[in-house]
Amino acid sequence: MTDRARPKFFVEPPESAEKMKKVKTPVTGPVSHFRRLGSDTSGLAMLEFALSMPLLIPLCFVGIQTADYTLANMRLSQISSMVADNAGRVRRAIDETDIDEVMIAARLAGASLKLGERGRIILSSVEPNGQSGGNAGQKITWQRCFGMKNVASAFGAEGAGATNSSLAQGIGPTGQRIVAPANSAVLYVELQYDYQPVVPDFLFAPRTITYRSAYSKREGIATYPTNLASLVAPQRRLCSVRSAT
Q: Contact, 141 vs 126, CB < 8 A?
C-alpha cells in the first residue's frame, strides 16, 4: 500500500523500542526525600543563624564585659583623683568633718559600683619629717580610710617615717615616688576595688583594680586634722574602722 493509498485511520507504530525505555518512573522513598532536601532553600537564614550562635554569643559577652570593665576603670580613676583633689582644696587647717565630706562624695560617686562594699580608699597626708642627717625623709602625718575591703596602705600607716628614713625617697611605687615640698603636704590616695565581672567567671575572672593619685595642699599649713565637731571614731574615718557608708 502506497502513502497515497494509506487510510486515515492507520496508526504508525513506534520507530523503536528505545523510545519506550526513556520514560522515567517517579523515584520514591529516602532517595527522593534527600534529593528534595538538597534543593530546598527555605529556612536558610535560620539555619545559618543557628550555626553562628556558638560564636556570636561569646563575642557578645566579650563586648559587654570589655565595655563594663573599661567604664569601671575610668570611674575609679576619676574617684581617686577627686578624693585627693578635694582634700587638697581645703584652705584652712583640715578638720575631721572635711575628711568625712570628701569620703561621702567618694561613696556617692561610686554608688553604682558598690565602692563602699567592694573597695577601700586610703587618704594619707605626706610631708617632710623634720629630721636631719640619716633620718631625714617624709612622714605620713595622718591617714583616713573608707570602704569595707580589708587592705592596708602599701607605704605604711599613720606615723610611718616620722622618726626615720623609711620614706626618704617619698611615697609611691618605685619610679613614681612623690616628695612633699617643705612647709606643705601632699594628699596621697590609694584606691583598691574588687571588680566583679558581669559575665561568668570562666570567661572573665574577678580581679582587683588599683589606682593612686596625689595632689599638693593648695593653701594653709599641713597640720593634724582638728575635730571641732567632736566626731566619734566611726565618723572620723579612722583606718581601724571599716565602713561602707
A: yes
Mean pLDDT taken over the chain: 86
Digit-coded pLDDT (tens) for 108-167: 999 999 999 999 999 999 999 999 999 999 999 999 999 999 999 999 999 999 999 999
Over residues 50-82, the pLDDT tens digits come to 887 888 888 888 888 899 999 999 999 999 999
Domain boundaries, given as residue ranges, for the chain: 46-236
Residue type, 118: R
Q: Please, what is the end-to-end C-alpha distance for the chain in angstroms?
A: 121
**Phi/psi of residue 139, each to 5°?**
-140, 155
DSSP string, 117-150: HHEEEEEEEEEE----GGG-SEEEEEEEEEBS--
C-alpha cell at position 118: 567592694
